[in-house]
Amino acid sequence: MTSLVVYLLIFVGVTLALYQFYAIYDYQNFGDDEQRDESASAPLRELLASAREYSRTGEDEAFLKALRQVFGDSLDRRIAEAAFCGNPPALRPEPLVRRRHRIRLNGSIRIEALPGWITRPPQVDIRGFLLMLISANCLLVLFLGGLSIYTLGYQIQVPTLAWTNQAWILMVLIYLLIAVTWLVSRFDLYMHDLYQIGQLNRHLSAD
Questions:
Q1: Residue 139's domain spans which residues?
Q2: Is 47 helix (H, G, I), strand (E, B) or coil?
Q3: Cβ-count burial of 177 within 10 angstroms (0-12 exposed, 13-18 middle, 19+ buried)?
Q4: Residue environment code for 100-133, b if the CB has 16+ CB neighbours within 10 A, otherwise e
Q5: Where are the transmembrane segments (predicted)?
Q6: Same domain, 113 and 75
Q7: What is the mean pLDDT of each run of 10 residues along the chain (207 residues)?
Q8: Which pLDDT value is given to residue 192?
């Protein structure tokens, strides 16, 4: 009975890893757009519309009102203008919304990574590398799941790999990899947000 539960959990883990990979890839490419549509976030759409109007006419009243509605007093106006007042906008609002309490402006954009520790935003986008790491984790989960089935009929004879004959060990490794993948995905979102925000420095210097 215990073995049946272990293999059931392995099956669930493999399925979860596949879904996790799909969900991460989908969010990286479409997440902010989908969430904006689904949540009907009118303030963000109003902010972008008022930024376009401000760029066209120079009238900033509606833009400043929409900016305060979304960010309160947490975002410097110059950053908002650099992000939203281009054609097309240089940056979607979501990264700024997520990191607004970490953004500092002192000549150029800086990030408060930890309390009292202010640093430059990353200059290199590591999303591709992290996606490769996530893909490798998913493939490793698939391998471990397949190995658990293989060892039902054929025991691994190499002494240093004898642990692979224990299904419960493979199950634990699968769920550890799922947890690592989740942590990597959160780190990816954080670093990609900071990278995109850092690119606004080019627009600030141009101004």
A1: 2-31+126-192
A2: helix
A3: buried
A4: bebbeeeeebbbeeeeeeeeebbeeeeeeebbeb
A5: 6-25, 129-153, 165-184
A6: yes
A7: 87 96 88 58 86 88 91 89 85 89 89 89 93 96 95 88 92 97 96 94 72
A8: 94
Looking at the fold, whether 110 and 142 belong to one and the same domain comes out as no
Judgement on whether residues 111 and 101 belong to the same structural domain of the protein: yes
Q: Where are the beta strands (DSSP E) in 26-116?
A: 103-106, 108-114
Contacts of residue 77, defined as CB under 8 A and 6 or more positions apart, other chains included, come to 64, 67
Whether 114 and 156 map to the same domain: the answer is no
Question: What is d(CA 171, CA 7) in angstroms, rounded to the nearest whole number?
Answer: 8
Q: Which two structure tokens, joined as six digits, stand for 77?
A: 């106006």
Write down how long the chain is: 207
CA distances from 27 to 100, 133, 186, 192 (A): 20, 16, 11, 12
Query: Domain check: are 87 and 60 in the same one?
Result: yes
Taking the C-alpha atoms of residue 159 and residue 145, their distance in angstroms, rounded to an integer, is 20
- Give the dihedral of Cα atoms 56, 61, 63, 67; nearest 10 deg: 160
Q: Domain for residue 108, yes or no?
A: yes
Q: Closest by alpha carbon to 80, among 69, 91, 88?
A: 91
Cα–Cα nearest to 21, from 29, 11, 10: 29
pLDDT of residue 14: 97
> Which among 192, 197, 193, 200 has a CA at the least distance from the CA of 129?
192
